[in-house]
Structures are given as structure tokens and as C-alpha cells.
Amino acid sequence: MTQSQPWWQKTAIYQIYPRSFMDASADGIGDLRGIISRLDYVKDLGFDCIWVSPIFRSPQKDFGYDVSDYFSVSPEYGNMSDADDLIAAAHSRGMRILFDLVLNHTSREHPWFKESCSSRTNPKRDWYIWQDGRGTRPPNNWKSLVGGSAWHYDGNTDQWYFASFLPFQPDLNFRNPEVSKAMFDVVRFWLDKGVDGFRLDIFHCIFKDERFRNNPFDFRYVPTKNLTAGFFQKWKYNLNRPENFELARDLRSLIDTYSPQRLLLGEVFGSDHAIKNYLGDRRDGLNLVFLWNLLPIKAEAGFLRDVIRHYEARYPEPFKPVYVLGNHDQKRFISKIGNDVSKAKLLALVQLTARGVPVTYYGEEIGMPDGDFSARIARDPLGKRYRWIPDFLVKRLGLYVNRDGCRTPMQWDNSPNGGFCPDSVIPWLPVDENTVSVNVAAQKPDENSLLNVYRRLLHLRQKTPAILEGTLELFDHSDVGDDLLAYRRNHVDETVLILINWGKNTVQFHHQTGCNHILLAIGMKRPVKLDPIAIPPDAGIILTRSN
Q1: Which residues pair with 487 in a beta bridge?
Q2: Long-range Cβ contacts of 25-30 (<8 Å, 24+ apart)
Q3: What is the largest CA-CA distance in the chain?
Q4: Chain-centre distance of CA 360, in angstroms?
Q5: H or E element, residue 56
Q6: For residues 502 and 259, what is the distance between their CA atoms, to the nearest angstrom?
Q7: Which uninterrupted H or E stretch holds 395?
Q8: Residue 112: what are its φ and ψ, rounded to 5°?
Q9: Residue 452's closest CA among 515, 502, 523?
Q10: Mind giving me the DSSP string for 444-480?
Q11: Would you give the distance in Å from CA 211 to the centre of its chain?
């Protein structure tokens, strides 16, 4: 008998952006009580783990990713009692909960930074990264992840501080043992409260070259998808430094002292080699890391076949790929495929049956589209930074600079505010006008809705060991044709076959696999004849061997 994998290798994660999920206090901003009120919905869908974007006290300039106190809850979302109740409510339903933790930087409003920038001799001066300039120029040529110099001048002390992201988010200096200890104390505090782990924000940024060498030139201006280069330089000396990999192992050693098992899920970018280093040669680093190959999504068999093949080659067992279609920084995936619900169902089929851990962003399960807001009216600080770029040029370059579009309130029903908050209240972002038809209440009774496809897939996943723990065997296009995506999941004596037709014509699957029992059909009637199997366009089917 094979040993069962740990929970975090079999989980299905639902990301909640708290500001936009459910408003229980009727102020137009989502909150922790709102999340608690909707946990049964998430549980009923079939998710067994939630990831909650930052809830710590913050001036909210970057909506929680600028922390001013790691040991308290931002009042917009509630208080510490509400956080305790949320953790308990998740656990009482047999669910796990991850908090979003920003280790790389704080807010400028954090007391640590206020002390640090007060004078060069302050005891917390070295808690952040300060350097002398080159005359009137920054200390070196390092660019931030969003463009422009990552160095910012402080006239009070005549030095420059470093910020990987936006100027109001100064980076902590993890080379200072006091900083490392303080942040490990933050981790312990929330683990002791019962949090099941953390999603770690921009973890690849934490350590920088201690010699502050200039990054080499690169011809590319628009950042590469894996963030190895951008703004005319290779991010060699300020990203993916060797000390980051050591930090991953140190954090893993800490969380492994807790029982039951905890999870570290890292947001990292870079080459496959760099990403693999965060996991550790002996799997002693981060438990999981996000993989981003699906983000430039194409609803095509060839594209998906290539992604799966890549993941299987680079992250084979015992590693586990993380399948993600979107998040709070990305344009919603259904808007990338022309709001095609039929294709969205098939993408869910792939995400929830491939070998890996699926992460679903709130609203994906009902097909919420992107808000498509102009950067000129952005609430998002990144959008504000790029509001000078004409909208037509943003679209032509394929940039996504206003993240308000993927953060609109969850659409629970067809009321003017989508059931997110009372209709008499103005929500922090406008609810999409399509909430009249795209909402949870409308899709619940429709057996063929996108919502119910997610539910059926998730429940099937939960009870099927081959999907949860099995290996993956991918059929090549030379065997099944260009339009059919086909793969098998194998576990002990169980085999599950997944067939998806992305083309415009019916395809026939002729292979003898022994799978003659239909578990689920999407976009098609259950076929009577299975030799061969006829799969119409925009349809998929899951089969197994009958006992």
C-alpha cells in the first residue's frame, strides 16, 4: 500500500480578497465577518483550504500589502477577535486557512520605518536598506518591479532607501539578524493562533546583493513573464539571491515544528532552476510555489499540452505543480478567452484534474469578467503610477496596469450591488453591471452552469485518489490529434482518463485504455458508445475503469 500524501499536496485552494468578498458591516468594504458568513458556500463548492489576502493593519495604499502592524487587524476588516473567529470557523468546517504574509517590506507608516528614517544613528536604521547616493544619483541602477529606480531619497538623513515595489513599501534588511528574528516572531504569532500556513508575497525579492553591484543591461523594456529582465536590465543582483533559498529552508524548519502540518506557498518568479531552488533539493524549502505558465492562457489543446508537459518534466513527483489561472494581480482569465463560458468549463476541468494543487481566485467559479477600468480612474496604486499611458497603448502592449479590474466585488445575486453590500451603500469598487446574469444565485439551480461544473469537479476530485495523488500520463498530439487534450491519472489500481476537445469538429478517441465507466461529462451528453469515444467541440469527459 502506498503512503498517502500530506494534506497540502492534495488540497484545493480558494483565494479570498477580503476587501471584495463580502461586506458584513455595510460600509462598502469586505471584512472578516463577511468571509465567515460565506464559508459554507466555499466548503459546499468543494474547496478545503482558503487563502486570505492580507488583513494586517495597513494604511491601505496597496490594500494590505503595505503593513504597518503585523500583530493587529486592519480596522476596515475587523479586529483580532474576528480573526480568531475566522480561523476557528474554517477549522470547524474541516477547512484550512492560509494568511497572506509580506516578509519583504513594510509600509512607510510602520513604526520600524519611522524610527529607521529618523536619523542615521537610530537603532532601527539598519532594519531597512539604506545607501549613500552617487552624487545626486541613486546608489546603483536597480529598477523596481514596476519600473523606475528602486531607490528613494530621504532628505532628512541624506541617504537612499530601497523599495522593490512602490516607494511607500520600503524593503526590510534581512541581513540584520534582528529583522530576521522579528519576522520569524510574526510567523510564530500567527501559527500559534492556528493559521495553517502562509502565502508568501514576492519572496524572491527578500535578499539583495550585499555588494550592491549594478544589474547588467538587457534590450527588453516590458518585463518578461518570469521577471528575469525588464526596464532594460537583467534583475541579476536584486532577485533570487542564494540567501533567499536558505531563508526558505529556515522557514520550513520553523513550520515543521508545528503539528498538524503547516504550509508555505511562495510567490516567486524566475527560471525553473531558480524556482526549484525554493523547494529545495531535499524538498526542505517552501512546500509549494506558484507556477505561472497558464497566465497567458490560450484555450487550445496545444498550449495546454505544452504547459502540462513542461510541469511534468520540470516538477515531477515528489514535487507538486501549482495550477493557477488568475489572482489579485492578474486580468481575470475568462476575459482573456473572450468571456467564453464553454471554454472556461474546460479550463476548470484541466485545472482540477491535472497533477497538482489548484488555486482558484474568488469569482472565477461563476465567470466574473475583468472590470476593464482605465488607469486614469484607478484606486490601485500601480494604476495611478501608469495613468499617463493612453489606454489604447496599454492594450496594444498587452500590459495590465490597473488591478482594480480583477478586484471588483463578488457577485452573489442580481441586486444592484450584487449582494456584496446593501444597495444603499456605495461599494469600494463598482460591481460589474453583468451581475444581473453572472452571479451565484442565478447559477446555483442551473445544473450546467459554470458554478456547478466547478462543484462537480471539486467533489469528484475529493473522492478520487487517482486525481488527488496519481501520476499523470500525457498523450502526444501525434497519437490523438491536434485538438484533443488527453491524459491519464494512475494510482495503485485506479486509472482515470480525461479527454477534452478544444477544436471545432467532433473528434474520435480510439485508444484501448480499459476506461469504460463515465464519471463526468461536460458540454456533451453521456455517450452510449465508448469504442471509439466521440467528443463534440468544447466538450470533455472523465472516465475510469469499472470495478
Answers
A1: 474, 498
A2: 26/421, 26/422, 26/425, 27/76, 27/421, 27/425, 28/421, 28/425, 28/426, 28/427, 28/428, 29/76, 29/77, 29/427, 29/428, 30/77, 30/409, 30/410, 30/420
A3: 80
A4: 8
A5: strand 56-57
A6: 44
A7: helix 391-396
A8: -60, -45
A9: 523
A10: TT-TTSHHHHHHHHHHHHHT-HHHHH-EEEEPPHHHH
A11: 32
404 secondary structure, DSSP code: G
Residue 68 host element (H or E):
none
Cα(307)–Cα(245) distance, integer angstroms? 25
φ, ψ dihedrals at 332, nearest 5° = -60, 140
Structural domain boundaries of the chain?
A: 7-106+175-373+433-454, 111-162, 470-544
Is domain 470-544 given the CATH code 2.60.40.1180 in the classification? yes
- CB of 477 within 8 A of CB of 302? yes
Q: What pLDDT score was predicted for residue 56?
A: 98
> Tens of pLDDT along 71-96?
999 999 999 999 999 999 999 999 99
Alpha helices in 38-107 (DSSP H): 39-45, 80-92
Kindly state the cell numbers that stand for 507. 473528434
Q: CATH assignment of 111-162, given 3.90.400.10, 3.30.450.20, 3.20.20.190, 3.30.10.20?
A: 3.90.400.10
Contact residues for 524 (Cβ-Cβ < 8 A; gap 6+): 535, 536, 539, 540, 541
Name the residue with cell 494590505. Answer: 64
Question: What is the rounded distance in angstroms from the CA atom of residue 236 to the CA atom of residue 41?
Answer: 44
The set of cell numbers assigned to 144 is 523596481
Q: Which residues are catalytic?
A: 201, 267
Query: Can you tell me the distance from the alpha carbon of 495 to that of 467, in angstroms, rounded to the nearest whole number?
Result: 9
Cα–Cα distance measured from residue 539 to residue 503, given in angstroms and rounded to the nearest whole number: 9
The pair phi, psi for residue 428, each rounded to 5°, is -60, -30
CA separation for the pair 408, 154 (Å, rounded): 36
Q: In Å, how far are 205, 248, 335 from 288, measured between CA atoms?
A: 17, 11, 27
283 Cβ contact list (under 8 Å, min separation 6): 318, 319
Q: What is the pTM of this model?
A: 0.97
- Residue matched to cell numbers 526596464: 231
φ, ψ of residue 523 in degrees (nearest 5): 75, 15
* Confidence at residue 372, expressed as pLDDT on a 0 to 100 scale: 83
Identify which of 530, 540, 489 has the alpha carbon closest to the alpha carbon of residue 510. 530
DSSP tag of 205: G
Q: Stretch 154-168: mean pLDDT, rounded? A: 98
Q: Note the pLDDT of residue 546.
A: 64
Cβ count near 465 (within 10 Å): 17
Q: Does domain 7-106+175-373+433-454 have CATH number 3.20.20.80?
A: yes
**Contact partners, residue 496, CB within 8 Å, separation at least 6:** 353, 464, 466, 467, 470, 488, 489, 490, 515, 519, 542, 543, 544
- For cell 444592484, the residue is 416
Please state, in angstroms and as integers, the Cα–Cα distance from residue 367 to each residue in 362, 363, 434, following that order: 10, 6, 10
Q: What is the per-residue pLDDT across 203-229, written as a single tens digit (0 to 9) for each?
A: 999 999 999 999 999 999 989 989 999
